[in-house]
Amino acid sequence: MTSQPIAGQPPAGATTGPPVTGPQAAAGPGAPRSTWAPAPGAAPLRRMVAAQAAQETRQLLRNGEQLTLTLVIPLLLLAAFSLEPLIDFGVGYSRIDFLTPGVIALAVMSTAFTSQAIATGFERRYGVLKRLGASPLSRTGLITAKTVTVIGVELLQTIIILLVALALGWSPNASPAAVIVVPLLVLLGTAAFSGFALLLAGTLRAEATLAAANLIYVVLLGIGGVVFPLTKFPRGARPLLELLPTGALSTGLRDVLANAAVFPVKDVLTLAVWAVVGVALAARFFRWE
Amino acid sequence: MSNTAAVEISGLVKRYGPATAVDGLSLTAGRGEVTAILGPNGAGKTTTVEVCEGYRTADGGSVRVLGRDPVRDAAALKPRVGVMLQAGGIPPAVPAGEYLRTLSRFHVKPHDPAWLLDMVGLASHAKTPYKRLSGGQQQRLSLAAAVLGRPELVFLDEPTSGMDPQARHATWDLVAALRGDGVSVILTTHFMEEAERLADHVVIIDHGRSVADGSPARLTGTAGQLRFRAEAALDIDSLLAALPPGSVAKESPAGHYLIEVPGGAVQPALLAAVTAWCADRGVLPSSLQIESRTLEDVFLELTGKDLRG
Questions:
Q1: Which residues are B202's β-sheet partners?
Q2: Residue A208 covered by a domain
Q3: Domains identified in chain A, total number
Q4: Closest residue of A to B131, CA-based?
Q5: Which of A225, B33, B75, B237 has its CA 20 to 30 Å from the CA of residue A167?
Q6: Residue among B92, B98, B180 whose CB faces A126 most closely
Q7: Within a 10 A sphere around the Cβ of B245, how many other Cβ atoms?
Q8: Better pLDDT: A132 or B216
Q9: Which has the closest alpha carbon to B32: B70, B9, B6?
């Protein structure tokens, strides 16, 4: 806590000492100045975005339901399905090698889509977005802060998931290009999921957003190639399922991390199209109040 | 710069679908003054303030805030203008102190968040999430957020609704202190006492139009009234004939008499005329009071007594 001259509950018109104007007015302890004298100014954008992103990250990590969604469920699925032969994943993979890319895709979806949609929906309902609109933080700054928050949480999730996967015997079969292609897939998936998260949050009531985001999460968990291989679905359905954002992300990550693919062109393109469509729809239809 | 008005509204029109919320409103709020916008529910107070805050675009007329356009010049205005919404705006799970600390990072020279929290009486609630604060405490946190960045102008939308009397008085002290240090304040309220105590300038609006505009003294001082109680059904016409020209007299309810002098104060001659008239008829008033109108009288006279939705 910095020390400032506390004028007490000042009576009407109280000033301490002769009025001092200019930047030195708030110089420090004992500096005579008017307590409430105007000295406005916006902080640098970078500092505002950092402060807002730190705030949103703390909110997310403190929220039990969000944490369940983003960390507990992916880790439980990873552990449960890798330790018990619940599903036959087909030839060529150990269970953990199949599951790890899918669970990373799930983690990305849970943070960028479900968690972000619900949090933003309620921020809109509680007037938080409206109040931030009156602050010096611009809308672009706010979206940037949300993006920084999502990517930060995804990094945390990925590190924890990879550590648990390694402990469970995961041995990736990847080309060196994976160092670039995995982040690319994750970023494109994040952009796609974020676009649709904000589309839901910015158009529906908060409760409807909550319901829709959870429903879509469960459906995509089931049909997105996360833990159930897409090869198990009817032959005709598979190409369609691979065109879903979750299917493209899990298939692409699995190709790179388990099949040593260099660049899964189709999945990258699929995610890029979802990202452009999602962000464009959100930009067009998002309502701040 | 500082010789421009804090807020200058001219012929503002704002419609929501078929409903006209603001219908040709004009007002000027001076720099360094407290301007109170009074009006019944639905009069257009919040809409007017939200147009000034850049939340809504006007359908007609012009609005200047600190000499700038609230929508086009939003980026330049936002650091200079503090906003307290009528309700909400703060994430429910975030502790009060943490909220102010985050917001303080948006400004170049903010007040110290801990000091400010103390100023609004929430020092012991720094770690309390917003949703666990009482309604009045939530209002005070919102007020603190509005002044955190050392703004030149603050908009306070019904700042003391939901506050207990202590908090209300502390808020009034804070508004008076802001004014004393040169901050312009625009507040909406339907507490007449609040406007009477704080405002340099009062604008009463109804149905989206300004119906009275001036200092509280000017609005209330234009007419005096004399009330007395006596037996019912005295002859009002003969009373009126005895009074100075232009006086108005009525009995409502039975036995309660009200004499008003539109456009002037009660003069000694009026009192003498009333008591002489009573003496002629052997009437002894059981009470007799001379009072200036309150802002509430003016308000009800202008906006009517019908309940608003």
A1: B36, B214
A2: yes
A3: 1
A4: A126
A5: A225
A6: B92
A7: 5
A8: A132
A9: B6
DSSP-derived secondary structure letter, B54:
T
- Choose between B233 and A106: higher pLDDT: A106
What's the pLDDT band for A89 if we cut at 50, 70, 90? low
Contact present, A165 and A100 (Cβ < 8 Å): yes
Work out the average pLDDT over A114-130. Answer: 95
Is residue A153 assigned to a domain? Answer: yes
Between A7 and A149, name the one with better pLDDT.
A149
Spell out which residues of chain A touch residue B98, defining contact as CB-CB under 8 Å: 55, 58
Range of the domain at A158: 45-285
Burial class of residue B24 (count of CB atoms within 10 Å of its CB; 0-12, 13-18, 19+)? middle
Q: Is residue A87 part of a domain?
A: yes
Could you tell me which chain A residue has the CA closest to the CA of B75?
A136
Please indicate if any CB of chain B lies within 8 Å of the CB of A46: no
Task: Look at residue A251 and tell me if it is in a domain.
Answer: yes
Residue A71 has pLDDT above 60, yes or no: yes
ipTM: 0.83
Whether residue B34 has pLDDT greater than 50 = yes
Nearest CB neighbour to B78, from listed A38, A126, A136:
A136
Q: Which residues of B touch A67 (CB under 8 A)?
A: none
Q: Which residues of B touch A43 (CB under 8 A)?
A: 105-108
Q: Chain-wide mean pLDDT for chain A?
A: 87
Q: Where are the domains of chain B?
A: 7-219, 224-292
The residue of chain A nearest to residue B99, with distances taken between CA atoms, is A55
- Residue-wise pLDDT for A129-147, tens only, equals 999 999 999 988 999 999 9
Phi and psi dihedrals of A7, rounded to 5? -85, 10
- B136-151 burial string, b = 16+ CB within 10 Å, else e? bbbbbbbbbbbbbbbb
Fold type of domain B7-219 = Rossmann fold (3.40.50)
What residues of A are in contact with residue B145 (Cβ under 8 Å)? 131
In CATH, B224-292 is 3.30.70: yes
pLDDT at A125 over 60: yes
